[in-house]
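for the record, two folds in this file. i put them one after another cuz i was lazy. first one right below, seq on top, structure tokens after. the second one comes after a little note so u can tell where it starts
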Amino acid sequence: MKNIVLFNGGRGAGSIIPAFLKLADDIKLTSIVNAYDDGKSTGEIRDFFEMLGPSDIRKVQQLLVPINHEDFDSINHIYELRFPKHNSNIEIFNMLEDESKKNSKTFFRNKFNNHALLTKLRLFLKIFIKNYILITNAFPNKKLKLQDCSLMNCLYAGAFLHFNRNIEFATLEFEKLFNLSGTVLPTSIENKKLVGMRTNGDVLYSEAEIVELRSNVSIDRVYLMESYPPKNSFKGTNLKDKKYYFETHQSFVEASPRVKRSIDDADIIIYSAGTQHSSLYPTYLSKGISASIANNKRALKVFITNIGADYETPFYKAHDYIKGALKYLNLGDFFEYKYTDYFNIMLINKNDRKNKNSVKIHQPSLKDIPVKKVLDNFELDNTGKHNGELVVQRILDEYSSNLRK
């Protein structure tokens, strides 16, 4: 059996994971994500229940629902279900309460054949409802906006509370419940907050601001904190002092034992494409991840560069992605590992299509990176997304080639 570990965000491996499940036999696939997302309904859930965000966990676990599962369509429907934007909180809450009391084979109008699965979903919904009432009554200033909230976020919150506020146990329970084709692990169970700072000193006060606030000024660093700084708290503070504050107040975060063990046991380690500062770099900051990667000498370590630029990295060229990964991996363990400790091969998209959004290649800078480079057209039909099957086949071929050496 090949143990494959994938570092990714919620959508970053959307083409890679299904391709592995289709093309590779006898594999154990583990996706490692962080749970610092705080946008939209995930931010509402995080704030109300004081928990990590289930958003990226949810997105990746949905990719792993087996297509031959007896309740495949129904499971996917509840993963996609969001409450109506036009309904009031009380209307949505009454809908949830009514659903929790049913004994039918349907759950939010979806028929389930697996009775044990349905029973567990209702249990998590009941726990969510009970705690929603208790918290609202005990803390009147606390509000949870249910409009446009993901149903699965509510169920993850219920499972989180059921397992004594442990997001990893909750995640593994859904893996078992849906008989998923792989494992998703949050990097840590510690409820830290992600903030950032641009090179001009502008503070990004949340993960949502890192993702959503548009600027031509590059992000200098992201930090994990115990709590979000109050908005505008650094007005009048110079750049040097802001940096000093964040560097002396950032939180120590330890990767979970399961995460470290999965890396130790990996035959292939993949750094997926995706948003860097909000999804991937925070994962690398967890202590123990970089040492586990560096100490695993037998694994093939593959870095996949992005195809298109995004608002977080508008000026990144191909080499900047791997440079950023090296920087944050070393920040996580306060140790100066080398490129060759983390990476064996880079997959870099190259095609003749003239698109101003495409990630550019600067050959002299690439030459300075002592890692094998594979330049090819990895894009799927000019969509800006990776051709998952082509990428996975190249990785499997490289792995087989290494075994024969």
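(here's the note) second protein begins now
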Amino acid sequence: MKSLAFNSKPKHVNKKPLIRRVVNCWQLYLFLLIPVVWVIVFSYVPMVGVQIAFRNYNFRDGIWGSPWVGFAQFTRFFNSFQFWRIVPNTFILSFYSLVAGFPLPIIFALCLNALRVKWFKKSVQTITYMPFFISTVVIVGILMRVFDSRSGLYAGFSVMFTGSTPRDLFGMASAFRHLFVWSSIWQNLGWNSIIYLAALSSVSPELHEAAEVDGATRFQRVLHVDFPAIVPTMAILLILNSGSIMSVGFERVFLMQNNLNLVNSEVIATYVFKVGIAGSGLTNHSYAAAIGLFNSVINMTMLVLVNWISKRVSKNSLW
């Protein structure tokens, strides 16, 4: 009689050479070719230009002919007064967005998954997804109209309840972060919840039935059945989000930025744009490249660190 151990021995289903497998499935590899070429052209080839950060770049001599200056551009940035303004601004804005925006799609997905009225559930999904497809320029335009201190809804409610015209929120540096973060959450809440709803759809109904037989309430089933099912997804997304903690969305910040809120709205992305492109004859591409490289190194460090912590704590990681 054959033993169970013998029967459970792993079988090598596909022993064909790689070349033969590629030939047999050439259509699938042809589909893969386009994204691979895109990644190589737009992600790996431009890495040659990173050396601009270590040179005193000028158009006449080109990348390879410009003089090598080592870490002089980084030293200049670290000694600049802008360093102690834009780096904390970038970190605070990103951390605020992560803390406020990460748990809300999870809570929204859990609540939406608990709904049993299908037409209401689909209506809520559609309404919350719609802002994601509105361009950033239109979103900022809507914000400016709604929070206009003279003719917007914000001004109307203020006059109605207080009898006085409110202050201009876009001219207040202290209000910039709140406007930026919560407008981003409003725009992306429904879209960010899709992946959690997909994870919740894989939860076996038998688990809910067993919990219901044991006397668990609906909230307890959400807490002890649904929530654990999306913990691995939460860990992976948290790792990915931490890898861009220093990369605040340029478009929204730049459009909402003005001279009155500049003290809190100037971040690395907008500063690099102003130094490297919009300098009106005073552009310094090497200096801008050094700042951008510093930003990327911090993001990579955060990604590796959070991935290591997640692997130790929850056993979930990217690698």
